[in-house]
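Exercise 7.
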Amino acid sequence: MKNNKLREIAAGLMAKGKGILAADESEGTCGKRFDAYGIAKTPETRRVWRELLFTTPEIEKGLSGVILFDETIRQKASDGRMFGELLMERGILAGIKVDQKTEPFGNAQGGPFAGSPEEEVTKGIEGLPERLAEYAKMGAKFTKWRAVIRIGQGLPTKECILENAKRMAEYARIVQATGLVPIVEPEVLLDGTHTIERCEKVVKETLTVLFEALAEAKVDLKGLILKTSMVLSGKDSGKKDSAKEIAEATVRALKASVPKEVAGIAFLSGGQTPLGATENLNEMAKIQNKPWPLTFSYSRALQDPVMAVWSGKEANLKKAQEIFRKRVLATAAASEGKWTPKLEL
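Solution. The predicted structure, written as tokens, is:
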């Protein structure tokens, strides 16, 4: 019975023509983005910013879910409703980021993961069942856990990929046992000078190891969503891949490593421009014979143009919401291969 409910929630998150807003930035990450536009870094400005997004008209037409941060799921809208409640009333599922940042994978002094000081593994298993129980009472229906994979000289190491995969599988097992849907997010970073071919190889290896770990942990793949990077050249490579190249390389990597039973795949924007992330998703949607639905789970690609207009000023709120409405609906159209530049106007 629990598995059926998980599968139902996962299918709802992957509803055709909809995607997931990642609004789970930590206070530090949100603060960096606020700095760029001279916005005060306070709990209240973060609350106002989230309310701007969550109350924008028509976003329920393009969003199936929103991933929240611990601070955000505890905050209320101006009318007194908890943000999770507000979203659910709009037909948008509330989710929650549950990992607790990263720790170094190795260090020069030795230790359990000695030898790879440039890499990271994600923390958060300790105390997870208790946190999940609290979040479920607040209305959360799904969760997210992110791991960071770096491409560089000798990186990533097989050991780091495996350790992150094991932790992610354990997270997914615990989450499903609690009755929530896990999103697993092994992000292969855009940073670096690597080629698109190198990125494809790393994405394929990372996902292959991850799904081996998930199988070992007996995680129900029909009640799980993969959030993954697109395959493209490193941002310092000097190479600008076409949307067609990115789409073909990405789908090729996914077909080689992701079981067809997975409920769906949502892409992160990972430092791409809003336009680039949208074009690439649109091109991917046009590829035929994919065994799973593909959609988006964007943060900056949806939020940055909105934040730039809002700039922390109440007078700009309506204008910013109109930009967010268009961004959501345009990106949702891209998830079906129906995007055109006119949708942004």
